[in-house]
Amino acid sequence: MVPAGFTRVAAVDCGTNSIRLLVADVSPGTGELLELDRRMTIVRLGQDVDRTGRLAPEALERTFAACREYAAVIRELGAERLRFVATSASRDAENRDDFVRGVLDILGVEPEVISGDQEAEFSFTGATKELTGRADLSRPFLVVDIGGGSTEFVVGDDHVRAARSVDVGCVRMTERHLVRDGVVSDPPTEEQIAAIRADIEAALDLVEETVPLREAHTLVGLAGSVTTVSAIAQELPEYDSAAIHHSRVSHDKVREISGALLRSTHAERAAIPSMHPGRVDVIGAGALVLLAIMERVGAQEVVVSEHDILDGIAYYAAESPS
Predict the structure, then answer these.
(1) Prior bond to 140 cis, omega within 30?
(2) Rounded average pLDDT over 100-104
(3) Is the pTM above the cut of 0.90?
(4) In 3-state terms, what secondary structure has residue 159?
């Protein structure tokens, strides 16, 4: 039974590394969101896109298999509205029409291949809707969504003031700098790490041309690289979304974890209890992106949010006309 004043919606966020589903009852009037089902599947849709410019057939099939699973959940829970948003990998691919047709056949909606600015808007809404009344968090917020292919930066108070998306993400940085002959360096060399850092710093220079990063008072970090760093910092025995949501990780701790991940082997990273298998090879680059951002803006801590672009998509789905 959907509560009075609420709309049952399904939101799908298809990124470079993962595809995620949220089914929730949302009140457009109050902004309240009652979660019914939230799940994530690592599909690596962006496999080799940076190198080839195309979505690989096996990556498309992994993504379509997840879509079929999600379609069953959406039908079972009876969502009234569905919004499917696709981000970095499908923006970059020459054969994105194959992706669009596959999703339409399975879910009955055409994926919205959104711009980086739209992606940032959704992320900001999802991450900050619960935080705006918090007396212990100073505004403006800087919301940073570290994805597989790109990272979004948004500065805002109640609304977005400035946003920028740049092509620096954990998968893209790993494939560009850490893969040799199809194998991820284990562990990477100092030269490889320096090359990643140089790409990140160049991207931050671009962001600062239009987004006042240093004016923000609270850094809010989103997506799997950030949440995994929080799980490691808390030494969680398994991934625990409730413990991670709105946790805070200090700059010193992020620096410590980033260094440890970049020095570790695949087996050592895979043995971390809270590590998702699909993040083992890309978490080092993702943690380094977070560290570089914190150092650039002078953030002493990051507030970690499990609510992100997916929640933003759900809010907008509930507010849009039927």
Answers:
(1) yes
(2) 95
(3) no
(4) coil
